[in-house]
Amino acid sequence: MHDAESFRDALHGAIAAGLEATELRYASGSLPTEGDSTRSLVDIDPYPDGDGLVLDASAMEPLAEVVTERERAGDLRRAGSAPTRTVLLSGPPGVGKTMAARWLAQSLQLPLLSLDLSSVVSSYLGTSGRNIKSVLDYAKSGPCVLLLDEFDAIAKRRDDDSDIGELKRIVNVILVELDRWPDTSLLVAATNHPQLLDAAVERRFDRLISLSHPAPVQRRAILEHLATTIGGVDPSALVLAVELTEGFSSSDLTRVWSLARRRSVLNASPVEDELVKELAQRAPAPGARRDSLFLAMRDTLGMSNRQIAALVGVSHPTVAAGIKRAEGASSGKHAD
Known about the structure:
Blueprint: H1 2-21, E1 43-45, H2 57-71, H3 73-78, E2 86-90, H4 97-108, E3 112-116, H5 117-123, H6 128-140, E4 145-149, H7 165-180, E5 186-191, H8 199-203, E6 207-210, H9 216-227, H10 235-244, H11 250-267, H12 271-280, H13 288-301, H14 305-312, H15 316-335
Helix pairs in contact: 2-4, 6-7, 9-10, 9-11, 10-12, 10-13, 11-12, 13-15, 14-15
Keywords: ATP-binding, Nucleotide-binding
Organism: Naumannella halotolerans
Protein name: ATPase family protein associated with various cellular activities (AAA)
């Protein structure tokens, strides 16, 4: 029994050593390309940056487990198991699917390979299956994280009569590749439309992780991370910005922050002022939330009723009335 365990440990050690010695080939001529052209089918980021990823626990915890599994792959193999090989990320546009793939690659200290399947299919119809297979084979040649973006472009339900025969054949290729995918590399597929995926494809993934729009606590964390690039941002302004960004995705937040940052440089003004001013122009519909916004803009940013009215696009008496209602509601809560 002792000899058997020693042999098993030695075998796993040899496998691990062999895997560590295997690397992707970055030299010209080694990358998968379209036919005889020099156009690369895959983008490679040797040092992906996933800093700033903020997701709720239902998504962040399984991602962290994937990393832990890889770190303890030897323990899993000795127990007769294996780490997660394939992950399917789904959710609306801009919620962090690509960033999650970057975070996984960074955490695992692996290069990130990215393939936009929608562009491959539309640009190379007729050779799509061969192109995709060449990218998958390349990703197997050394440890990496392979991101297949817009996965629904090739993995649609095979009962969809609107698709041509080749795309249905590609689904069969994907089914075989998912079954045979080695645990030396991590395959991450991303889709905005999980309902379009072939059920047999979805079942082949080791993990299905759904991402959603960030809740207030995540929006606050995202804004605070963005604010670390400049420092000294008024926290009360960020609290107000969180209130004004309900329904925003993480990419929406990054985009509006970048706009505010540019304006703060051009206008020599605090970035938080520019942020709130930009968001105020997208004020909510009349009601308690808009009244609270008016009150916060006055008390947090020191804006006059006329300034608020000009930004939001209402009359200053409307702002005054809203502030009065908000103050009344606030005092009523304090009385309780």
